[in-house]
Batch of 4 targets.
Target 1
Amino acid sequence: MHEYPVDPPFQPMMNHGHQHQHPVHGSHDTPSRLTIIAHGSLNQDQLWRLCDFFPGLDYCNVRHDQKSRQCYATTVYNSAPAAAYAKEKLHGFEYPPGHRLIVKFDSVQQDSPGRSGLYSSCS
């Protein structure tokens, strides 16, 4: 029987809490914060795992709007390139199948303590 070398499992673009792969930018002008609008059946853990598939995720907070039955998430990546990459890959992705994600850069400045008006009607 032949023995072949076994490579470790390939896990593309996963960030398991190790060193950040991108430099951290401190400027509030750096667009590293995203807003995601998704189907209301998704929960915090599901969206965290989906967003964490892309390197650099620092934060993910999910809120549900009972009226629209949609889920709104704010995600923060540790750099503008990380956020741009996540946005490029997630926008339009069907999750759950049949329901496309809407992903855009958040208009709220990063160091602003307030929340976007988008969340004012969420419970």
Target 2
Amino acid sequence: MVPTLEEIFERLDVYRTVWTGRYERLQMLDAMWGEAVEQKTNPDHEEFLTQRRELQRASDTIDSVVQRDLLGQGLRFPAGGLENGILDFPTTLEGRWVYLCWRRGEVQISHWHELEGGFRGRQELTDENTIAMGRLDEDIPDDSGLDFPPVS
């Protein structure tokens, strides 16, 4: 699973680089022309339209990959997760929901945290945790505390 996650983040890196380049060029056009760049008579108007269109295309592609390949697979981005390469995986431990936590570059999923603990609350997985997590003989706890966005 980790090699697949790394590959997904590598694809996202490419799209984010494209997005950043388009955004920076739009910022330059705005600094040079302000709202005048939106006028058809402006010499940079066509470039402005192209950059804006390509920025939206890059945003849509990033959103699509995140929705399909990550959120759609039951994974979760915590705040700053895309930028910092952090993903959470919901599981149960001793009758409550917790998150397994992976950070880009880690060779395996080796940490977990409470729902409210976040990255700072990460703890190393122990053999005891691993055995107790996701047990099917427990009642599934209420999942209303999981903060997953709706999948469209």
Target 3
Amino acid sequence: MLFRRNKSDETPPDAPIAHGVSTGDDHQPISEGDRKFVSILLDESGSMDQLLEPTISGFNEYLAELQADPNAELVRFSMTTFHSQSFNRRTVNAPLKGAKQLDARTYRPRARTPLYDAIAKTIVDLEQHTKGADDPDVVVTILTDGYENASTAYQASEIRSLINAKQEQGWTFVYLGANQDAWAVADTIGIPRGAAALYDSSDLGARNAWKQTSYATRRRWANSERRSEVFQENLTHAESGRLKHQEH
């Protein structure tokens, strides 16, 4: 029941992928090494326009750091941007090394923030991507500068149920928010407060948000340690130290 579709969605799960994005083959058998999955859900609503350049450059630096990691060959990567007019799958379950950077053509903030609907679609996509993977290692990072204000298919309680179910399967969710009580929002949708952080709505703040999740993700791979609480510790102790965390 929770995975229902809204007929008004402009980009349903089986919609064609936008021109120019990198994709993987969901029907290709998962290889022995394809057990690590990283998914980015990036707010593309109008308020993100004030952080356009640092969001683009911060994501590109994040992606480059992940691609340079020794474990990169073992990772499938997805990246989606969203606003109330569209759900844009920019990279779809592609080998990490083949993921493409953002630019002003592929990231154009506008409209409102259907956060709950976007999270649900991302989970549905990842369920398809991880089919056939033996005990997949999944990290989902959500980055937004505003509150939910435009979802039509899902409510907070339903998203909480979806996220809790996936966390019980070993998935890790990270919530990075600006201009809000990031910990309260994370708690509302089932993400542990230790996996949430408030970043400054500034050039430096946006870049540091990407640096911190890059650091925590790469530490996870290096140590082969998948417990969410360890990811949370790495997020907290990332080298930039610029994000604001709440003890839990």
Target 4
Amino acid sequence: MGRTESGTPNRWTVLDDDDQIVHEVNRFIQYLLSLEAPDNTVRATAYDLRAYCEFLTQTGRDFDDVSDEVLAFFARWYRNPAENVTAIVESETARTRSSTNRALASIASFHRYLGSLGEGSVGAGGLRRLQESARTYRRPRVTVLDNVGGADRFRPRTQLGPRLPRTRSRLKLLTIQQVHEILTQCRDRRDRLLIMLAFTTGMRIGQILGLRHEDIDTRQRTIRIESRESNPNGARSKGRKSGTIPMTEQVNRLYIEYMHEEYGYIDSPFVFINFETIQPMTYSAADSIIQRLRRKTGNHRWSIHTLRHTFVTLSRRAGVPIDVISNLVLHSNLQTTIDMYSHLDVEDLRKLLIKYGAWDESS
């Protein structure tokens, strides 16, 4: 495992029970890095494959023994908190269905890679077995416009291995009043700026912690989001997409006040720092701020990412086009935004029913 100057992991290697490198997995991780896969993807894949290797060891199997049945056993092993427990309630499982499906997808990609190394390579036999039972489906290229185009708008895809049924969980959101209460409990401008950036721009925590002064243009009121691998605090964007987004006058003024009243003459390129060590703020330090604000407000059901969801949802309710929102939050493609934020809550449905005349509540 490689680390940054602050000790944050930035390179991943999977070891077996004897602390020996699992060469097939390590080679696959290096392959992902060569393709410049997002850091979070590489990290998640490393953890998923470590669990897969642990499962194979415990059950006396190897990479060539994989099949749909074996992966189904893995999914059950991965989700259940103990071998003698079969959880029937989602909240009682060790891992969610979405996390398990991500692990199954990582394993499928891993076996595709092993198969590409040649017929006699480790895992090639397992790949053939998965391919024999692979499921082919057609996924739309674009779903923004309905009833436009024909079958050529759909491309066939092959899914290796089984997947669990998807459960669409309701996104956690905050009300304006709750956000205001959080802001009033912030102890300084630095913490308030962190919250305001997430709430008014939808930036991810990795993007916020990676912000440098050169990225902020107070005259144009813009923020440049760059994907950098050299951040000593390990701050990373989820993807490698960069872009420039606007910021409100309130956030712009808060940043200027923060620089004059708290930051002063500190010599650091990073916007968010630890004032005692003058080092860039880490993920754990940001999490400590959130934990303190949860205790202060008595609201424990939110995170920085909740503020991102709230920003997108409020923007949609205000009528901002979905493609504009997708650009603002730097999603890699429009479909991601559509899939994640096409939700409507009860009040949204009520307003639409009244708007289009289905309901009459004038009396």
